[in-house]
Amino acid sequence: MKNKVKFTRMEQKMTQEQLARQVKVTRQTIGLIEKGEYNPTLQLCVAIAKALGKTLDELFWEVD
Amino acid sequence: MEKTWIRFLLPDDEYKRRNMLVYFAEAAILQLIAIIVLLVTSRFKPSLIDSEIALLCLLFGTIAYIWIRYILSGMEFAEIMTEKAYRRERKVIVIKSTSFLLIMCVSMLSFYAFGTMAVPLIEGIIVTFIAALLLFLTNYVSLKRSYQKNRELID
């Protein structure tokens, strides 16, 4: 699943490690989500959106 | 977190937890197939496989399947991202395996000295050596796979 997690995280000068710690997953999981190789649960999507101060739409909604 | 009684066996990380559930499910299906095959063969050739050996094979086969899948998945060392961290962890693995080998050899020698060993000393040492080698190899392969996987995910 394509998403804007990496872009938003870098925009906020946050490292993968910091985001991983905030949402209580491993850095590997964050890396996989950013690359679109793992589809997180809604619960984790919400946690990431909150940590980055964005809405689910802004991070995960695909616009053609 | 999934509502299941095997929750105590599952890791906290969501990605790891989901994959572990898949490995458990795959192992259960394979076990089911093996049981069906054993039931059919025991009907036609009862003396073909000893029941105790069949049960042991099922037990170790299931554990080995989950273990191998976990090692090859590269999920174990999820935080090893840099060359430095990889080298440090590799050193830890060598120390861990060597300590295991030394502790087991010393305890075996002491058991042998007090005459409580039922098997010959050389057999015990060979088994210990194989166990230490297995410990090292599984950890090393897992570390290497994890590092390779993590390197591609680094920002």
From TrEMBL, chain A:
All copies of domain HTH cro/C1-type, residue ranges: 5-59
UniProtKB keywords: DNA-binding
Superkingdom of the organism of origin: Bacteria
Cross-referenced PROSITE patterns: HTH_CROC1
InterPro entries registered for this protein in UniProt: Cro/C1-type_HTH (IPR001387), Lambda_DNA-bd_dom_sf (IPR010982)
Single GO MF annotation: DNA binding
Keyword Hydrolase: no
Protein's name according to its UniProt entry: Transcriptional regulator
Lineage: Bacteria, Bacillati, Bacillota, Bacilli, Bacillales
From TrEMBL, chain B:
Keywords: Membrane, Transmembrane, Transmembrane helix
Residues annotated as transmembrane: 21-41, 53-72, 93-115, 121-141
Lineage: superkingdom: Bacteria
Protein name: DUF3278 domain-containing protein
Species: Terribacillus saccharophilus
